[in-house]
Amino acid sequence: MSLDTDIKKMVESIGLSLYDAAVLNENENTIFRVSVTAPGGVTLDKCVEATHLISPLLDVTPPVGGEYRLEVSSPGIERKLKTLDHFAQSVGEKVSLSTISKEKFEGEMVGVENDEIILKTKENGEQRVPFRSISKAKTYFEW
Asked: What are the extents of the domains in the chain?
């Protein structure tokens, strides 16, 4: 099994869902960031509980060589969208995306059908963008 699969099972055992797990370098520090979601939101207590479950696993199967810090948190209101499931979970939210051919789209996430992302834009109405053509995407919040 992979590390992501093991982490997914652990967080699901306490009512959370694994959103993403990534190794990041910030200010010369290596961080293994685990993002989790839950219906109604993620509490600090659930993040602490997930940290206590995941930490011993990482002692046996480290995500990187050398020193790193484990962070468990919610992905936040503005978050990267990397998978079709991320897009599906974001229906009703504002999404900004760029394609490999440098096209840019912003609008409300309407749905996912046949590997296409469906956005409702102000300028052109409903737009269908093939998932494989997306180079970068994220949710955003209008204040």
From this structure: 3-73, 84-140
